[in-house]
Protein 1
Amino acid sequence: EIVLTQSPGTLSLSPGERASLSCRASQSVSATYLAWYQQKPGQAPRLLIYSASRRATGIPDRFRGSASGTDFTLTISRLEPEDFAVYFCQQYGSSPPVYTFGQGTKLEMK
Amino acid sequence: QVQLQESGPGLVKPSGTLSLTCAVSGDSMSGSHWWTWVRQPPGKGLEWIGEISHSGTTNYNPSLWSRVTMSVDKSKNHFSLRLTSVTAADTAVYFCARDSGTYLYYFDYWGQGTLVTVSS
């Protein structure tokens, strides 16, 4: 079973700063099947990034995803007030078909 | 615009069966998309429960497979979840979602979620 570990658990930053969120897989995963979501209180998750680095429709270009081996990173270049939320990474494994989420990183305003 | 809407009882007794339905609009449910349930215990992370195709093929989370059944009714444009022998640990917000259908395995549309509490 693949485990996704996100760090840090909480990140305290100010608007205008750069955020870097990490998602590490316990074993090799395909970057093709790695996605990132944003979730605000009382709302459903919102797709930000798929295939590790491709922005979903309507997502601002300040959101960028990258991959290096089993390490995946979501970078938000200049934080806007609406970016403060919880972020989850998600991967798909095919044998058996299973989707796994990381435990989340809370991005809070400093 | 694709929309999903969960419905079902908000309170289920321990050892009972949780039953939810997800109504889909803006999609005929006959294409390559898979239809998924994800849950989130209060204040915690997301857990994938399982998925169903338009033809009724299912994949379930191994940790839940013995208690989960999903079904699809394309004539009503909805799909459903049954979870048996529930305990307090099954208390969560339950989301339905759509897989993108691109074989890239991500969820592009989500319902707003419905809170199900397991309590006597």
Protein 2
Amino acid sequence: DVKVTQSSRYLVKRTGEKVFLECVQDMDHENMFWYRQDPGLGLRLIYFSYDVKMKEKGDIPEGYSVSREKKERFSLILESASTNQTSMYLCVVVNSYEQYFGPGTRLTVT
Amino acid sequence: AQSVTQLGSHVSVSEGALVLLRCNYSSSVPPYLFWYVQYPNQGLQLLLKYTTGATLVKGINGFEAEFKKSETSFHLTKPSAHMSDAAEYFCAVSDPSGGSNYKLTFGKGTLLTVNP
């Protein structure tokens, strides 16, 4: 089974801080996605990547950037955290119709 | 562009009653379809999926869903609700052609309450 790990389960940051969320997979899959999950809004796609150094914007990229320097690692960056970025962040690795979810990072921005 | 609509953000049923959670999608190509369940303070768990073949798909915990192309629907059902089914359910669609690299588009979720 593919294992997807995220760097933190819980994170508390202050407004204006730069925040890094990391996702690492232990298989050789190309497609990696970052979603945020909010009550009543479901999961919304922030960014995704289909290869090293390749990235594409999802539905809500504003305020975020990403980095994929190695195939197994996909980082989500909040350049200047704001309170409206308080959310659960999920990394998903996809191989055709198989999806593998990370455990999630619950980020609170105060 | 794909989209998913889940009718009813909150569904309440009695224990033993039929569970019906509705999902409609839009997609420019025949999609892959998924239902996920999320129990309180837990991650998403795959209930069932449709890729190709038989349109009636059986999943875990007694759930099933039927892909109806003409109605662009993928409704989730369970004949008899159990208290342990109380959770949030998400419908999702992806493009099997690899367009947007299998991006998953989720519905907003339906919270299922089961009353004793």
